[in-house]
Write a structure and sequence with these properties.
six-stranded antiparallel β-sheet, nine-stranded mixed β-sheet, globular, single chain, alpha+beta, D-amino Acid Aminotransferase, Chain A, domain 1, D-amino Acid Aminotransferase, Chain A, domain 2, 15 strands, about 30% helix
Length: about 270
C-alpha cells in the first residue's frame, strides 16, 4: 500500500490499478505535489504542473516526461476514479525503478468557525535543506509530530537564525499597519496558493514586503494568516501566547478575493 492513499485505485504510469498492488520502495527519492479538487476541477493545474517540474530542475534531475503527461494523468484519475471534492497527490518515486502515481489522500478543510475565529499555531525549530523542492523531508515528519502532540492547527518553522519562514504545510503572512509581510521566496516552499495570493495582493494594491521575519518580531504584527491548498486564506488567532486580530480588514479583503478567483477558475474549467 502507498502511505496516506485513501483511494481503492491508483493511476500508475497511466494505468488505473488496485491500490493494494502499488507500493513506494523504502528509501526511494520522492518528488510530489498535492492538488485540491473542487466540483471536479483540479484547481490551478497549470501552476501545479510548473512547480512539479521545477522541483526536478532545482534538484538537478532530468525531467522524467513532458508537462502534458502531468496534466493528463491528473484529469484521467479525476475522471476515472470520480473525484468531485478532495485532495489528490502526484508522486514520482525514484529507486531501482521509477514510477509516476496519482491517487487521492485524506483531506481536512478548515471549518466555518476556524475561518471566523482563526486557528492556533505553534513554532518548531527546523528548516528544509532545499525549501523550493517539494520532496519528502524529516523536518515535515517531526513538525507533524509536534502538531499532534500540542493540538495546534499548524506550526511555523523557525530557522537557525531564529527567523520565521513558513508553516509545515503552509505559507505564512503577517500584517502591520495595512502592509503584508512574508518571507522571501528563496527561503520557503513557494506554494501555489502563495503565488496566487501575492498576485492578488499586487492586484488589490496592498503594500507587500518580502523579507526576513524574526521570531521576536511576531508580537509587533496586527494580524496573521496562513495559505495553502487546503486552508486557502486562514486567519491565525495566536502563535503560542501571541494574539492576533482575526477580523483584520486586509486579511478579510484578501480571503474574499481568493475565494472569488477560485470560483472563476472552476467556472472556466468545469466540463
Amino acid at each position: 500500500m502507498v502511505k496516506d492513499c485513501i483511494s481503492s485505485s491508483i493511476l500508475k504510469d497511466g494505468s488505473l490499478i488496485p491500490a493494494e498492488n502499488v507500493s513506494v520502495p523504502t528509501g526511494a527519492v520522492v518528488i510530489y505535489d498535492v492538488l485540491r479538487v473542487m466540483d471536479g476541477v483540479p484547481l490551478f493545474l497549470e501552476d501545479h504542473s510548473r512547480r512539479f517540474f521545477n522541483c526536478f530542475d532545482l534538484s538537478g534531475r532530468e525531467r522524467p516526461f513532458d508537462e502534458s503527461v502531468f496534466g493528463n494523468a491528473v484529469n484521467m484519475f479525476i475522471s476515472r476514479y470520480g473525484v468531485h471534492e478532495g485532495n489528490i497527490r502526484c508522486v514520482y518515486s525514484i529507486s531501482t525503478e521509477t514510477q509516476f502515481l496519482v491517487y487521492e489522500i485524506h483531506h481536512s478543510y478548515p471549518t466555518a468557525e476556524m475561518y471566523s475565529q482563526g486557528v492556533a499555531c505553534g513554532v518548531f525549530e527546523g528548516e528544509r535543506a532545499n525549501p523550493n523542492v517539494k520532496q519528502e523531508a524529516a523536518v515535515k515528519t517531526n513538525a507533524y509530530k509536534k502538531i499532534a502532540e500540542t493540538g495546534v492547527y499548524e506550526v511555523l518553522l523557525v530557522d537557525h537564525e531564529k527567523n520565521v519562514t513558513e508553516g509545515s504545510k503552509s505559507n505564512t503572512f503577517f500584517v502591520k499597519d495595512g502592509t503584508i509581510v512574508t518571507a522571501m521566496a528563496q527561503d520557503v516552499l513557494c506554494g501555489i496558493t502563495r503565488l496566487q495570493i501575492i498576485d492578488l495582493i499586487k492586484e488589490l494594491q496592498i503594500p507587500l514586503e518580502e523579507r526576513k521575519i524574526g521570531l521576536s518580531e511576531l508580537k509587533t504584527f496586527d494580524a496573521a494568516f496562513i495559505s495553502g491548498t487546503s486552508p486557502k486564506v486562514l486567519p491565525i488567532r495566536n502563535v503560542e501566547d501571541i494574539q492576533f486580530n482575526v477580523n483584520n480588514d486586509v486579511v478579510k479583503r484578501l480571503a474574499q478575493a481568493y475565494d472569488k478567483q477560485i470560483a472563476e477558475y472552476i467556472q472556466k474549467h468545469k466540463k
